[in-house]
Specification:
The chain is about 40% helix and about 15% strand. It is α/β, with parallel strands linked by helices. The chain folds into two domains: about 140 residues, Aspartate Aminotransferase, domain 1 (Alpha-Beta Complex), CATH 3.90.1150; about 250 residues, Aspartate Aminotransferase, domain 2. The strands form three sheets. It has a seven-stranded mixed β-sheet, sandwiched between helices. Strands 9-10-13-12 form a four-stranded antiparallel β-sheet, with helices on one face. The longest helix is centred in the C-terminal third of the chain and has 23 residues. The mean pLDDT is about 95. Bound molecules: pyridoxal-5'-phosphate. Pyridoxal-5'-phosphate binds next to helix 5 and helix 6.
């Protein structure tokens, strides 16, 4: 473990990703540990979006759909993304939000298991995914049911009545990871299909959708992939299933021949049938530009840096702040974690507000977690050292104990 700030500076000097920090626009006086919630902007994004607005939209107008490849941008960006999550070419559709994509893949999956009624998920899943599943099963009103178990009980709960197992790989609170390969295998052995949510995985941990045999996956691009606020999400369908599925949410962008304006829906072959309507091209262009920072990145090496940095943050904070009741949530083995660290912290909300006031940006997750995202492309070891020092001074001096740090904001 690094024992001094100098040790951290040495680690930074030896870090092969250190130079990538220059690719991002980050304010000088901020230690940004919230890239797991909203990634920092890559510097090239602004110029690209301006060019799309002024040159493409401004000068080429509607001809841009053809001349500047707007219509096929979702597929192009999907194929770039596929490489970061170990997916086959033409297996990723970019667009909409995770919540909407959950609806699409869940209805696709249930359509392949019409004799089964159970959607199995766990209490570590992101609530929105569960809400979509509950909304769908209630609407269907035919005995479908969302069964929610504890994360550690998922494997044992995959019984022969389960149609679909729908889980998030990295828990947004504790950072605990599910074993994708093992759970996918169990689901298949029981005749069920699997949907993985990769919101806190893509761009942070090494994912290999193809080799683990996943059927479906969803994820967003505004977290570790730095696509910008509200950036389009993605969904994955295993190639063998693509032409067998029929999502319940369809639209003209998923039609085999959208410009025939057929009155009847005829699904496009492949992943394209998962597209619904017109996509936000400015956001799509921003995401396309944002993905440039990944050129040449080895995801295994990136993941290794994430693990080392998570371990360092846990060690520093627990050494210096356990006397104030701080304790890392989630597994102790870094191989079983994603790329963020949450600490149970009494008065956590006020503590995080005090941190933010001193330029250390993380976030708070109810009931008592202060959460720090580690984005190995631009987080330095010195950042982690400094953040731990500032947190320690806040705890030691009770600097969080001020009324302005207690006032709850709409977004925590
Ligand atoms: C962030 C997150 C989402 C967000 O869903 P949106 O519909 O894109 O807002 C969904 N699932 C998980 C696991 C998340 O962490």
């Amino acid at each position: 473990m690094a024992r001094t700030r100098d040790d951290c500076l040495k680690l930074d000097a030896a870090d092969r990703f250190a130079a990538r920090r220059e690719l991002f626009s980050l304010p000088d006086c901020v230690i940004y540990l919230d890239g797991n919630s909203l990634g920092a902007p890559p510097r090239n994004v602004s110029a690209r979006v301006t060019a799309v607005v002024e040159k493409q939209w401004g000068e080429t107008l509607i001809k841009s759909w053809n001349e500047h490849g707007w219509f096929h941008l979702p597929q192009k960006v999907g194929n770039r993304l596929a490489q970061l999550i170990g997916a086959e070419a033409d297996s990723v559709a970019v667009g909409d939000s995770i919540s909407i994509n959950v609806f699409k893949v869940l209805t696709s999956a249930l359509g392949l298991r019409r004799n089964r009624k159970i959607v199995l998920s766990d209490s570590g899943n992101f609530p929105s995914d569960l809400y979509v599943a509950q909304g769908l099963t209630e609407f269907m009103a035919d005995g479908h049911e969302v069964r929610i178990v504890a994360p550690e009980d998922v494997a044992a709960a995959i019984t022969p009545d389960v149609a679909v197992v729908m889980v998030t790989e990295v828990d947004y609170r504790t950072s605990r990871r599910h074993d994708m390969k093992a759970i996918t295998k169990l689901a298949h052995a029981a005749g069920a299909l699997i949907i993985w949510d990769l919101a806190h995985s893509a761009g942070a941990v090494q994912i290999d959708l193809k080799s683990c045999g996943a059927d479906f996956a969803v994820g967003c691009t505004y977290k570790y992939l730095n696509g910008g606020p509200g950036a389009p999400a993605f969904l994955y369908v295993r190639p063998e299933l693509q032409n067998m599925v029929q999502p319940a949410l369809v639209g003209w962008w998923g039609h085999a021949q959208p410009f025939v304006f057929d009155l009847e829906f005829v699904p496009a072959p492949g992943i394209t049938r998962q597209q619904c309507g017109t996509q936000p091209i400015l956001s799509m262009a921003a995401l396309d530009a944002a993905l440039d920072v990944w050129d040449g990145v080895d995801m295994a090496e990136l993941h290794a840096k994430a693990k080392a940095q998570c371990q360092l943050l846990i060690d520093l904070v627990e050494t210096q702040c356990s006397r104030h009741g701080l304790k890392a949530a989630g597994p102790r083995n870094m191989d079983e974690r994603g790329s963020h660290v949450s600490f149970h912290c009494p008065q956590g909300y006020a503590v995080m507000q005090a941190l933010i006031a001193q330029g250390v940006i993380g976030d708070f997750r109810a009931p008592d977690l202060i959460r720090f995202g580690i984005t190995p492309l631009y987080t330095s070891y010195a950042d982690i050292w400094d953040a731990a020092e500032i947190l320690t001074s806040i705890m030691d001096g009770r600097l969080w104990d001020r009324p302005e740090f207690m006032a709850l904001k709409a977004v925590t």
